[in-house]
Amino acid sequence: MQKKIWLSAIGCSKESVQAVMAKLQGYGLAVDGHFFEDDLEKMAWTAPRQQLLDSDVALWLVLGSAASLTLPSVRYGLAMLALMVQAERGSDFPLIILQTEGGAVPSESLPTPFADARILRLADESYAAKVVAAVHTVSSEMRRSPYRLDVYGIANIGQWFEVGPRDSDWQGVIFGVDTGEITLHAVGRAGQLPEKSVLNYPQQGLEVTLGACRFTAWAVQNSLDPSSSYYLKVEGTPEKIMFCPYSSEEETEAYIITLQ
After folding, report:
1. Which of 12, 96, 219, 254 is 20 to 30 Å from 69 by CA-CA measure?
2. Dist CA 242 CA 175 (whole Å)
3. Are 259 and 80 in contact (CB under 8 A)?
4. Tens of pLDDT along 210-225?
């Protein structure tokens, strides 16, 4: 069966995108894609979610310049889209950045959901062969974190984050943002925004400091298992989020996700 990839083009001309697609098709790949829309107000980053969740798509290819990949709004949109995809397909779903121009973008400078992304240069004549190799070396087992993290961007409902345990139980959860504002929270079934919710000992406006990072957090003490989640509506575009199981102990493992 022909391998398929999805291409997200950022600030590229139609001609340059067509040239990349033609070259990859010449290597036996089926290629489809879209022009990435940098519009956070409309939550345009959600647009290709279903296409990227298609089981026939074996790799996500992001095409853009160094300048476009350093724009905070673009990085945030790509990170949010990546979280949506990785929630379903695992954090090791193959992701390649094909850089069109500019100095090399350091991989360590990318948002957390792009931590495993491979960076190739369009000027490298062998890039297509490397994409083909990546498609054919996909692991049969998805790498899973000890937590679940998903995001939603729904018109008239807003931007929501979902967190919960993957294989254990949490006796509550704390979730914070470094910028932006949490405005609502709820607990409900995993994978579905709840219509109503009962919260145990809800807290708001907690100040959490982790290293050099400071977060404003909300929390609940509802028991969560792999079938239930904590949901939070967030206004704005935080650079970082943090979350951890609620604990009466002074120390608990906390997770920080960079989104820009």
Report:
1. 254
2. 6
3. yes
4. 999 999 999 999 999 9
How many Cβ atoms from other residues are within 10 Å of residue 24's Cβ? 22
In the chain, % of residues over pLDDT 70: 98
DSSP conformation class of 226: T
- Only one residue has tokens 């109503």, namely 196
Q: Listing from the earlier edge strand, what are the strands of the sheet with 173-177? A: 203-210, 213-220, 173-177, 240-245, 255-258
In this predicted structure, what is the pLDDT of residue 137?
84
Enclosing H/E stretch for 95: strand 95-99
Please give the full DSSP string across 142-176, using - where no structure is assigned.
----SEEEEEEEETTTEEEEEEEESSS-BS-EEEE
Please compute the mean of the pLDDT values over residues 67-92 and round it to a whole number: 96
Mean pLDDT, the chain, rounded, equals 95
pTM: 0.94
- Which domains, and CATH codes, for the chain? 4-135 (3.40.50.280), 147-258 (2.60.40)
CA atoms within 13 A on the CB side of 117: 27
**What CA–CA distance (Å, rounded) separates 84 from 81?**
5
Tell me how far CA of residue 65 lies from CA of 97, 125, 145, 163, in angstroms: 10, 17, 31, 32
Q: Mean of the pLDDT values across residues 108-117?
A: 94
Beta carbons of 81 and 52 less than 8 angstroms apart: yes
Q: How many CA atoms lie within 13 A of 5 on its CB side?
A: 30
